[in-house]
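Summary of Year 1 activities. Much of the first year was spent building the evaluation harness for sequence design. The harness presents a backbone, in tokenized form, and records the residue chosen at every position. We chose the following record to illustrate the format because it has been used consistently in internal testing since the harness was completed.
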């Protein structure tokens, strides 16, 4: 029963009006309006009490605004693009990877570059200089004018590397038979390939890209006439990079601009599936405590 006190009188709600319990008379309209205001502000049975607004905006679900990549996203310039935001593709990839693994992944958009890196918090540098987050292996998503590249990404410094760099651990992993067998399977079944970007001391930049050729050997994609190399030869090639040269290595896939646009928001599915497939190598690059 809805009963309210007002100016020493007790009133009971009947329909859209009120009745004075003592006199059974309907009060004047001005009192009815005041009673309705009081009644509207009261918490209902089974309903939560009104909560004061803090002025904060409700938190958006990561990636909920992402509808797909656009033609203008495929550029080396990030001006006017939105996919690197938490509420679009950047957030969607991170959220899906965290949900699938039960682990806490986060992401960083790289300053002035159409690139996002994803990893667990310890894989990011505290300084986060320029957003580049060096030293440790991470998952990568990057666009250029023609394609999307998604991969596991690791860097070698052109200066002395301390124990916080995971490059030496990555090289060690490439020597383990169980890791090699696992990577061969991924390269054959998922079409993964290595992309190596070498920046020499003299600032000369070179690229090499290769995939599994046959019987577990590797072949450079741009050098069809070259004999396949072994995994050990790949290890030696990477290990013998000069201390003064910088090297970026991606192991992953590329998707054409046309396919990436056509997939719409579902581009996140093959990308996260690849990250999950490479999770074993990502974990293998961690330094044992």
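For this record, the design step produced the sequence shown next.
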């Amino acid at each position: 029963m809805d009963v309210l006190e007002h100016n020493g009188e007790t009133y009971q709600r009947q329909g859209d009006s009120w009745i004075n319990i003592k006199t059974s008379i309907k009060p004047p309209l001005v009192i009815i309006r005041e009673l309705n205001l009081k009644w509207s502000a009261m918490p209902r049975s089974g309903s939560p009490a009104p909560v004061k607004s803090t002025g904060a905006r409700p938190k958006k679900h990561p990636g909920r605004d992402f509808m797909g990549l656009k033609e203008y996203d495929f550029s080396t310039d990030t001006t006017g693009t939105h996919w690197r935001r938490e509420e679009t593709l950047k957030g969607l990839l991170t959220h899906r990877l965290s949900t699938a693994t039960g682990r806490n992944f986060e992401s960083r958009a790289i300053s002035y570059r159409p690139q996002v890196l994803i990893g667990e918090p310890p894989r990011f540098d505290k300084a986060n200089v320029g957003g580049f987050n060096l030293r440790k292996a991470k998952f990568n998503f990057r666009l250029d004018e023609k394609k999307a590249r998604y991969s596991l990404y690791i860097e070698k410094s052109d200066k002395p590397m301390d124990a916080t760099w995971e490059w030496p651990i990555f090289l060690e992993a490439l020597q383990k038979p169980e890791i090699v067998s696992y990577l061969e399977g991924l390269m054959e079944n998922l079409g993964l390939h290595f992309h190596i970007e070498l920046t020499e001391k003299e600032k000369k930049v070179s690229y090499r890209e290769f995939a599994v050729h046959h019987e577990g050997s590797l072949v450079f994609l741009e050098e069809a006439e070259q004999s396949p190399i072994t995994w050990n030869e790949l290890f030696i090639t990477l290990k013998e990079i000069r201390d003064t040269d910088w090297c970026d290595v991606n192991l992953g896939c590329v998707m054409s601009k046309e396919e990436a646009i056509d997939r719409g928001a579902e581009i996140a599915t093959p990308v996260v599936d690849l990250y999950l497939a490479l999770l074993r190598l990502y974990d293998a690059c961690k330094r044992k405590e």
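Confidence is low (pLDDT under 50) at residues 46-56. Quantitative recovery figures across the full test set are reported in Table 2.
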